[in-house]
Amino acid sequence: MDFDATNLTAIQDHKLIDLNKGAVGHMRNVILLTIDTLRRDALGIYGSKRGLSPFIDSIADRCVVFDRAQAIGPYTQTSFPGILTSSYYFDYGRSSHLSPQRVLVSEPLKSGGIVTAAFHSNPYVSDYFGWNRGWDVFRDFMEYEVSDKVPFLRGKDVNSHVKDWLSSHVKGNNYQSFFLWVHYMDVHEPYIPQREYLELAHSSTEAHALSEDDMFQLFKEVVLKRDISDRQKVALLKELYEARVREVDDYVKQFFGILEQLEVLEDCLVIVTSDHGDEFGEHGGLSHDGKMFQELVSVPLFVFDPERRQRETCDKVVSSVDIPPTINCLFGLEPVQAFQGQSLFPLSEYKERGCFGEAIEKLGHSIKETDKEVYYYLAGNLKIIYRGNIDAWEMYDLQNDPNEINNIIPTVPKEEEMTCEQAHMKAILKARIGRWKET
Amino acid sequence: MSRLTVTDERRKELELKVQKSRDVVREAVREFSSRELAVGWTGGKDSTLTLFIVKQVCLEDKIPIPKAMFIEEGDTFPEIIDFVNEVSKKWNVDVEICMNKDVYDAGGGVLGGKVVVSKLSPRNQREVRERLELNIESFPFEAESFIGNHLMKTVPMNMFIEKNNIKGIFQGLRWDEQPARKQDEYFEFKEGGDLQPSHTRIRPILHFRERDVWDTTFAFGIPYVRLYEQGYRSLGAKTTSKKLSNVPAWEQDLEHTVERSGRRQDKEQMMERMRRLGYM
Question: Is this complex scored with an ipTM above 0.95?
C-alpha cells in the first residue's frame, strides 16, 4: 500500500496533540494491567480470528496499539524487571531476588505524591523476592490457600479486592492520584478453564468432553514432561489455553466495568500488556522455558486513552523496559536515571533502538547451576540469538520467516560469512554477554 | 492458667503416634552416632516435642543426647531465648546458638540496616555472589526475605553441620503444617555441593497433626513457650509473627483455620506456589 510519509507524520502529530492534551504530564491516574503468559497472537486486535478477546477488541478504538512490543525475557523472573523497573534481568547477577539496587516504578511515584497499589498473585514478584518496595498497598495473596488446579487467585477475585480498595480510595472526588498495578494469572498453566469458557471459546471440540481431572492429567503428563510427541494432545492443550484467554477477557471487561461504575474510567489511562507468551510445540517445547522465539517474547501492548475515539497503531519496535518511563512521564514526573527504557509517549519522539532480552537457558522450570545464558537482540526485521549452553548463534528474518525456522547465519559465524548488518547486530549482542558476572 | 486435659483413650492414641516417632529416632541412632546427630530446635512447639522424644530415646538407650542447634536469625522473640536456656538446663541438653554474626553486625543489628556485600566475610560474599547469584553492592538486613532466609538460616545451619561434622539433623516438621510439607519423608538425604554439606534430614513427628502436638505436650508435661498462651499460634521472626487471637493456641479452631496465617509467607510457601505453577 502506498502512503505518504509526510502525511503520516502529520497524522501522528495530530494524535500526539490529543494525547498531550489528555495525557502526557497531566494524567490523573494510570493503571497497569498485566496478564501473565498471554500470547500476542491470541488477541483479535493482533489479527486472531479465534474470537477469544471480544471485550479487548471492542475497546481497540480507544487505544494506541503497539504492534511490535517485545518482552525482555521469556518467563516472569526475566521479564518483570523490564515492566516494573525498566532494567534487564542480568543487570545485577542472575538471581530471582529483585536487587535492592533496582528502582521499582512505584518508588518515584510514591515520592512524587501518587498513591501506589498492587494486586497480584504471582510468587515470583512477591514480597518474599523483594517486589514490595514503594507501594502504599501491596497485596500478593501468598497467604491464601490455593488448589493444585487453580494455583493462584482468579481474575474475578483479584478484581473484587481491587474494587474494595478503589471504592474506598476514590470516595468523594478529592482523592489523590493513583497508580494501580493489577496482574491476572488465569492464562498460566495448568490450563484448567471453567466449562462455560471452554464452550464460549470453541463451538465444538474434543476438549468439551474433558473433566477437570483429565485436564490436570494432560498438564502433568504432557506439559510438565515437555512431551510434544502426541500432536493431538498439544492441540488440545492449546484449546484449553485459549479458553482461559477467553475467560481473562471477561475479567478485563469486569475490571473496566468497575472503573466505570466508580466513575473513574474517564480519568484513567490503562496500559495493558503481558510478561511473556507461551509455547505449544513451535520450537519443540511447551510452556515458557529459556528460549527467545517470538511465541514467547513478542507480547501484546496497548494503551487505553479515555480521550481517544479512533484506534492508532504504532509499528515501532518497543520494549517492556519502556513501560516505567512511560508511567513516570504520564504523571509529569522527573525522569528516573536508573530507567533504561524511554517513554512511549509522545509517540513521534520515540526513537527505535531495537530490543534486548536475557534469560537462563533452562528446560523445565527449575534452574540448574550449569544452565547458561541465552540472549536476543531484535532490530528492524532481524533477530539474533546467542545460546550459551551450546555456544551458538542464530539469526532470523522475521519478515520472511515469522516462525523463525531458518537460521540465516552459521552457528559459529566468522566476520566474512555475514553481511555488515548481521555482523553489526552480532557485535551489539556480544557486548552484553557475560555482563552479569561483572561487579 | 489455661490447661488441656486429655482422656485415657486419647492418651493411648497419642502414645501410638509417639511410638512411631521413637521408631524413626531409633533408626537414626542405629545409622549415626550421637556425635553425628543434631536436633534443629527453634523453641517452637514442634521442635520442642521432637527434642523431647529424641532425649527420651537416648536416655532409655543410655547414649548421649545429640547437640541441639538453635538458629538465631537476628529477629528472635526474647521469650524464646529465655525458654531455650531454661529447658536446655533442665533437660541437660547442649545447645549451640548459631548466628551469622558477620551479616548481622554489618547491618548494624537493626532490621532494614544496610549490609554492604564487599565488607562481608569471604564466605558470606561467596554465598551472595555464587549461591544466590546476586551481583549487588548492598541489601537491607531482614531475617525472612529471600536473602535473609539464606544468610541468616541456611548459612548458619550449613556452617554448624560442617563444623561439627554432622551427618543427620532432626527436624520438627509436620505434614499438616502447610501444603509444601505434604510430600516430605521421614528420612531425606540432601546431596552436598559447593558451600553446602551433604547430610540427612530426619523428621520424626511428620504424622502429628497440630492438635496432636498440643495434646501430647499436655499429656506428657512437655514445656512450651508462653507466647502460645498469649494467642500466637505459629512462631517465626519476632517482627513478622502476629497473633490473630488472644486465646491460647490450643483453644483456637485448629481444624478450620490456617496454622501459619499469622506469619509472613516463607520460603516453603513460595516453593509450593511455584511447584503448583509447574516450576518444579
Answer: no
